[in-house]
Amino acid sequence: MNSPFTNGIAAQRLDADALTENFSDLHAPLDGHEAAVAADRCYFCHDAPCTTACPTDIDIPLFIRQIATGTPDAAAKTIFDMNILGGMCARVCPTEDLCEQACVREIAEGKPVEIGRLQRFATDTVMAKGVMPFVRADATGKKVAVVGAGPAGLSCAHRLAMLGHGVTVYDAMQKAGGLNEFGIAAYKSTDDFAAREVDWLCSIGGIEIKTGMTLGTDLNIDGLAKDFDAVFLSVGLGGVNALSIYGDDKNGVDDAVSFIRDLRQTSDLAALPVGRNVVVIGGGMTAVDAAVQSKLLGAQNVTIAYRRDRDAMSASRYEQDLASSFGVNLMFNAQPKAIHGNGAVAEIELEYTSSENGKLSGTGETVRLPADQVFSAIGQTLTTDCGLKLEGRKIAVTDTGRTSRDGVWAGGDCASGGDDLTVTAVAEGRDAATDIHETLMGSK
Ligand SMILES: Cc1cc2nc3c(=O)[nH]c(=O)nc-3n(C[C@H](O)[C@H](O)[C@H](O)COP(=O)(O)OP(=O)(O)OC[C@H]3O[C@@H](n4cnc5c(N)ncnc54)[C@H](O)[C@@H]3O)c2cc1C
Ligand code: SF4
């Protein structure tokens, strides 16, 4: 058995009980009484700012009122009407930046209605019963291919199936779910929730998921366009940006997304090796998740180094504070300069930065931190563009997800516009499905 003080990268730093506790649900679910008390705080605002702030436009006051009146099944239906992955979103949405930030009680008292936890209460209630609250419309005879079984693809597939279309979902991985399955922090999605949600969502019928099918090798866009009436691309961002600094090829330098994917898929957390001194480079959710989970695995010292100041970090203040509460050190205005070590990482050299008129530059002053593991979390990239027009580094789309090619839509992280968030991907998948439906049925 190792410990947090064991040098280098090592497995079994903590015992099984400690790991189980560390990776349990970040927020315990509300019980019926707690949900009633939480729902009672809602003013049921007429022009509810919380709903305006929700990318999926869930009627929040309505579902909270339904909980308050003892009808959580109806509340869940209100949520699923707009967001079929409302269960996952209740766990992973940065509500502190979205609905709860806009809540009038947050503005008046600094304590919002707990919208996320109430959403989880309602959606869990229905999913625990295995009830799918929607039925399919009569079959239209139309076939749609969805490429990518993450939140955008699943949301699109469900809406299309509900409208009566036959949907085939292709995914390169052996399991559906996208980053819900392979990316979201383990303590946000416990008890195999992502996989259970996929099964539940598919229980509507009319959706066939084919895993191990990669666009670009097993499939191509011309073939899909020929075989199906419409194609929806939701391939996410599969590539990662490299650090591109001296020494980034040393053992112990890895990308944070792969580390998190391994962590999400392991059946034995104790077997997962982690450094004694871990440094994560980046400022988004991926950086925070890699850092926090390294700490939870038993790393002794974990630092997030971000090149700009705190306010520029894309991880919310809540996520930053969460990392600090787990003992992660946050270092701002520090950019990676070089990685030192003989074959394996021993130290990372960072240069302090300053910003003038938004332009970042190194100050010339450097600092070295001991590190036996360095994770790069500096952004992901599109790997499959199918020759479609791009906007920036993503597939260019209209508001309803139309790409530059007729009959091909795209949404989620791979498509232009919108934040790279689960809830945004769900909204874009849903809206593209509606546009595909209207196009296929000739009403557009
Ligand atoms: C580590 C991490 C943590 C995150 N945490 C949060 C969080 O807490 N809250 C939040 O709101 N958001 C979070 N996000 C962002 C969120 O996960 C994404 O915005 C969301 O998953 C995007 O959904 P998507 O369907 O567009 O893509 P993805 O979820 O990436 O799904 C894309 C799917 O396409 C498949 N695919 C890719 N290429 C091909 C191909 N060529 N052929 C076939 N299939 C292919 C992939 O296997 C994958 O299943 C996080 C992201 C990361 C990386
Ligand atoms: S803003 Fe807050 S109080 Fe008003 S409806 Fe939304 S959750 Fe309720």
TrEMBL record:
Residues 142-429 form the FAD/NAD(P)-binding domain. It holds the Pfam family Fer4_20. It comes from Octadecabacter ascidiaceicola. Keywords: Oxidoreductase. Its EC number is 1.3.1.1. This is NAD-dependent dihydropyrimidine dehydrogenase subunit PreT. GO terms for molecular function: dihydropyrimidine dehydrogenase (NAD+) activity; iron-sulfur cluster binding. Residues 21-130 form the Dihydroprymidine dehydrogenase domain.
